[in-house]
Amino acid sequence: MSNIRHKIHGLTRDIGFPVRRLLPAAAARTVGPFVFFDHMGPVEFDAGTTEGDVRPHPHIGLATVTYLFSGAMMHRDSLGVVQRITPGAVNWMAAGRGIVHSERIPDDIREQKVPVHGLQMWVALPADQEDGAPLFHHYAADEMPDTVVGGARLHVLAGSAFGVSSPVQTASPTLYVAGSTTDGATLEIAAEVQERAVYVVRGEVSLDGERLEAGTLAILEPGAAVTLQAEGETVFMILGGAPLDGPRFVWWNFVSTSRDKIEAAKQAWNARDKSVFPDIPGESEWIPLPTH
């Protein structure tokens, strides 16, 4: 019997650069607290352009988690935070009742033609933290615990796994691990958290003998340990955690337990209500509310 519940290949779309969306999907809306999963790039951006820049936009009820394999992005938000995001670092932004941020490609990355390649995740905040104050935490790459197990090099980005614990402060039990392997390396993924998934970023792996190609998200059966074996050099992610404390509504950049809160956020953004969505210092652009 397979220990893979679902295989999700996602849909790739061009938003000025290629993005593969894995969550939400028809087969699964969430994995643990993760409600959104985009794989962006790799892509090079031309100097002297704004290609790849994401203008100021709002969030409520979630935490964004950005992780890069190459390139860099410049984060700015309505808290006044200005942070360059670099490979291996973890950037955790909790929107709470409302935050605005932008993500832009630095000039040196454009000029040097460095490919931008990474993952953007959204984690739904627990219901009792949805209306909390927004916050941003940056954790440098060298703060992430690094361990080698069965020939796999592992960076534990959130939660505890493989004998080490991440310093990242999460709102609910969360597991997030970046892994890389050489050919033939094996790794047992324990059933320490209730909901888990494995995503293949590059190369191929097998899970209990079932082959997964790059771009595949495999959602695992609860309670079963699985063995990952690398087919050549691979990069993969392990994600999951405790199930959400109830269903979530997701509309555009808003996540909430309540449709009414999403409607209120839409109205506040349309009205440019700075008591809900303050301006970002140094930014003058914004993304309008979608019409559908």
Automatic annotation (TrEMBL):
Note describing how the cofactor binds: Binds 1 Fe cation per subunit.
Binding residues for Fe cation: 57, 59, 101, 103
Entry keyword Metal-binding: yes
Residue ranges constituting the Pirin N-terminal domain according to the UniProt record: 17-123
GO molecular function per UniProt: metal ion binding
Residue intervals of the Pirin C-terminal domain: 178-271
Needed cofactors: Fe cation
Stored Pfam families: Pirin, Pirin_C
Entry-linked Gene3D superfamilies: Jelly Rolls
UniProt entry keywords in alphabetical sequence: Iron, Metal-binding
Family note: Belongs to the pirin family.
Name the UniProt record assigns to this protein: Pirin-like protein
